[in-house]
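Q: What structure does this chain adopt?
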Amino acid sequence: MRNFLVVLLLLAASRMAVAQQSPRITVRGTVVDTANAVLPGATVMLLTPKDSALVSFGRTDDKGIFQLKGMRRAPYILKVSYVGYLPLQKDVAPDNGDVTDMGPLQIKPIQKELLEVVVRTAKAPLSIRGDTIEYNANSFKVPPGSTVEELLRKLPGMQVDGDGNIRAQGQEVKKVLVDGKAFFGSDPKLATKNLPAEAISKVQVFNDKSEQSKITGVDDGKKEKAVNLELKESHRKGGFGKVTAGAGPDSRKQMRSMVRGNYNRFSQKEQFSVIGLGNNLNQNGLSWNDYQDFRGSQSFNWQDDGNFGFSNGGVFFFGDGDENSLTVPISNGVTNQGFSKNYAGGGNYNYDTKKTKISSSYFYNRADQNFDTRTDQETFLPNFTYQRQENSRRYVWNNNHRATLRLEQNFDSLNTLIVVANARFNNGNEQFGSNQDFFQDDSVRVSRTGINNQSSSTTFQLASTAIYRHKFRKKGRNFAASLGYNVTNADGSANQQSVNEFYRDTTLAGTLLPPININQDVISSSLRTELKSSLFYTEPISKKVVWETFYNFSIRNDKVDRDYYDRTSDVARVRNDSLSRYYTNDFFYNRVGSSLRYNNKGFNISGGLAALWFNQSGRFAGDQTATRFTTVNRDYFTLVPNASVTYDMKNNRYLYGGYSVDIRQPSTRDLQPVVDNSNPRYIQQGNPTLLPQLTKNVNIGFNSFNPASFTQIYFGASYGWILNQIVYNQLVDPLLVTRTTPVNINGGSTFNTYVGFGFPLKKTKATINFNTYYGYNKNPLYINSELNQTNSNNYNFGVRLDLTPSDKFTFYPNANWSVTDTRYSVNTTQNQRIYNFRYGADMNVKLPFNMYFNGNLNYQIYKNPRFGFNQHLPILNLAVYKLFLKENKGEIRLSAYDVFNKNQGITQQAYQNFVQTSQVQTLARYFTLSFTYNMRGLKSQMRR
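A:
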């Protein structure tokens, strides 16, 4: 009996001892080399013995000491890595106490035994070398069929928001490479949203140089965060891609369908991709989800434009923007605007060796779009306000053909030639109908307009640039020259019909003024050519100081012939000489500048000055056969200063700032002192005395990332003040006919600032990120000869939580609050606040039997108390899918889009003297059942 009591007491004591042990422990130690010298900055990781999954990580401090706190009491594998040393792996058996001290951990320099250690030792989930972090993709599990985007979300220190924008180590990712080559152009989403995660072996995050630094050979201190995706051997040797087809009904019992596919082959030298798609799901042009590796190595590298010198502070054309972009049209998934049918297809081929890099591609897309829109607008004048209510219908049909070619030839280590050519051919037509009612005092109809317009157009564009770079034997001495030729040729025709009714008194039954009816044909043709060249030379003054000088030159010529014809019957028409216009415009541009650059111990400081001169001469008349032409001839000269500073503080801390001046030249149309009354409600007249607009900008920013704690913080601010700002003064008569004239005015300014902060709540399991933004815009404008000052304040705050506890469950909730406060000096009673709130979440769950569930919520709230506008739009998308067939190559998916049938194309905007709300009928709830077949790379065995 006594022995039995003793046993019970011992058991109780042991239970009390166990109970006193903390469930969490701290693992610590010191990393030293074979001479017992401490090694600061070594990477330390705790892995699970079962599958080498990463549990926690950190870096040694200045004394070589590491501490991993809050670890669950369990066995681990401790892995230590350091550049130039063999990785060390040790088992961790927790002590009875709260701290498990591993003592000195000695690692050896790399010698002959490297191969043996690499074979024996499990791969480290991540390694840190200075500003570069390398992740072993196999250590971060994602569901089969996941994209690279899902993989990046699970990597410590990486953030991907709901729109697919990537931040790494506190900075925005500007470029994604594949095997060190830019196979996807400059937009990182094109790779991350489409490449399969299973094709990736490693993910490397590093600081890349700017494109101008690479071309000129001069380090300008600017760093761009880049990601390199290293492919597995199996995907380098075989092709991969997928084909998807699906269909289902929408809420109006109409059938919705889609088909898309792609195929890719990668090797060390070549890459080939083809893509095709068709749908009536509002995936316009080419959505991110369908892009699938289309752009090839170096393709669409628009930074190779050959414009050397200050990266900003150039000349821009005010109001001459060309909407016919040469780039492939991209829309971010399913849009919320109208209804559209889309067809697209193309292919590209890339050849990449040490000396020769060739990239070529062709792409075709067609879009048929229908829009039914309701617009409510209120305009504020000094003595009264008026409202416009519009119901419009618009149909757009577009065909686009695009081709691109880029050649980079390295003749030797000193000479390189780059040739870039991009071409585009477009044709299409548009139909637009609108009924507009104008009211004063919310109820009194002042006028009414009915519009019925049709148009068609054909456009050809070519942009080409050749860049030659020479490196001299003397280090730091470089020369670069560029020559470019661009052409745009556009032809179009249109029929414009409108009925404009004006009321003399305040009642609808009052006496009508004679209506203004328009029935016109318009035939136009335009040709723009540009020849440009740049020179760049650098000379090292010392090891730390470099002298840079550059020269930019361009000649641009515009010819526009626009003829108006008034229709007197269905077959007869008479030329309208007052509206028809023929004009030419020649623009000569010269800029020569020089600067000194100091580069030492992370400091990169540059200061310089450029002399800028340009001449703009134009001549115009009613017809190109006219004997008398009115001319506009303007010369402009100014000195443009530029300064920049960057400070690489090491350990992923980066400070930058700068000062620059931008110049905007008025367009030829704004300089023409003629009246354009083709729209009787909006009459425009040019101003030959316009001066160029100057904007002086100053900015500062800071980025910091702690690789030990994976905590990041970043902030930035910029301020710009505008001289000779070009604005369009308004005169509005009692019938609400607006006459505008461009003028120069001072007093405009802009200010923007942002702050971001993120840290792991639990390493590898949960990360939280905060961001905030404030923007201020001050815009002066004369309305009915009275100065109106519009001040707009925009406040924005967002938070995002990334929960990745396991490969079976991930959850990404987020929220964003935005408030725009707009105040007007001419009518303070119309001051208002617009609220746009968004709450969202993405969830992925792995179910039994190789099934998966995905849910996406986007809850949007639009408020404008001034007009009693309050809309709540919960957009919920759900999907369940199952993987089957050999190696899970097949996928069957049932998807429900906009479950609550709430999708509406709503936009709210506040401008200088009016506020507007638009709502477009759009595709809402629909269901699809789809099948996907994944073509995966051939398997290959690594030789021992």
